[in-house]
Design goal:
The protein contains twelve helices and eight strands. Helix 5 packs across helix 7 and helix 11 packs parallel to helix 12. The chain is of the alpha/beta class. Helix content is about 45%, strand content about 15%. The radius of gyration is 17 Å and the shape is globular. The structure holds glyceraldehyde-3-phosphate. The site of glyceraldehyde-3-phosphate has 14 residues, from strand 8. InterPro entries: Aldolase_TIM, TIM_sf, TrioseP_Isoase_bac/euk, Triosephosphate_isomerase, Triosephosphate_isomerase_AS. This is Triosephosphate isomerase. It comes from Halobacillus kuroshimensis. Its EC number is 5.3.1.1. It is an enzyme of class 5 (isomerase).
């Protein structure tokens, strides 16, 4: 039985004060880490404080991106060494906003995944098709290509430890959620890709999240699907009450 993993991606939102208030409300209210994995994926300036404040609780703190190099002349970038030193546990890689707006490539995502494992960070690898690709019936091929490239060169054990987030781009921030069947169909395909590309054990262990307009009203239905092991949530993770409802739902699946 795979444990559900619910991650709230705040994206570029919140003031320091708002981040603080959220954590004070949520940190002792999340279910135990044995029941569900709860992660807040916060902007870089808040990470240190949030890690300190959640120490000893079941709430983990993740970053939204990083560079793959350990250090160097990369103005404006943050390295895996820095994140590890802060005590961050997870890092979201290849989010569609990074791919689209900042032109991140599959090759870069793969380098970042390797760097994450090298420094003891768990990668949450985002994959997903655009509306155009879905309408052209390319969803499965697009997602398969992204998954294989992201996992290239990893050990079987590392593949098993990876979290993959399936996020159809057309469902992100639009209020237009994939139906639970649509979401599960692609997540099932991702698990098959991992099985064929790595092995059956890794496919069985890898956790696959769905992301795209997940909210308390639809989370139960999505998490009840056979191949959905959690959610990567943007908008509905910004308020502590809503985030707590989402992690609570993860506990039941
Ligand atoms: O990382 C989160 C996703 O982009 C989903 O965002 P959303 O829940 O606001 O649609």
């Amino acid at each position: 039985m795979r444990k559900q993993v619910i991650a709230g991606n705040w994206k570029m939102n919140k003031t320091h004060r708002e981040a603080e208030d959220f954590i004070q409300t949520a940190k002792n209210e999340v279910p135990s880490a044995e029941q569900v994995e709860s992660i807040v994926v916060a902007p870089f300036p808040f990470l240190q404080k949030l890690v300190e404040e959640t120490e000893g609780t079941s709430l983990k703190i993740g970053a939204q991106n990083m560079h793959f190099e350990e250090n160097g002349a990369f103005t404006g970038e943050v390295s895996p060494v820095m994140l590890k030193e802060l005590g961050v546990s997870h890092v979201v890689l290849g989010h569609s906003e990074r791919r689209e707006i900042f032109k991140e490539t599959d090759e870069e995502v793969n380098k970042k995944v390797h760097a994450a494992f090298k420094h003891g960070l768990t990668p949450i690898i985002c994959v997903g098709e655009s509306l155009e690709q879905r309408e052209a019936n390319e969803t499965m091929d697009v997602v398969e290509g992204q998954v294989k490239k992201a996992l290239e060169g990893l050990t079987n054990e590392q593949c098993a430890e990876t979290i993959i987030a399936y996020e159809p781009i057309w469902a992100i921030g639009t209020g237009r959620t994939a139906t639970s069947e649509q979401a599960n169909e692609v997540c099932t395909h991702i698990r098959k890709v991992v099985s064929d590309y790595v092995n059956a054990d890794a496919a069985d262990a890898v956790r696959i999240q769905y992301g795209g307009s997940v909210k308390p009203a639809n989370v139960d239905e999505l998490l009840s699907q056979s191949d959905i092991d959690g959610a990567l949530v943007g908008g509905a993770s910004l308020e502590a009450d809503s985030f707590l409802k989402l992690v609570e739902a993860g506990k039941h699946e």
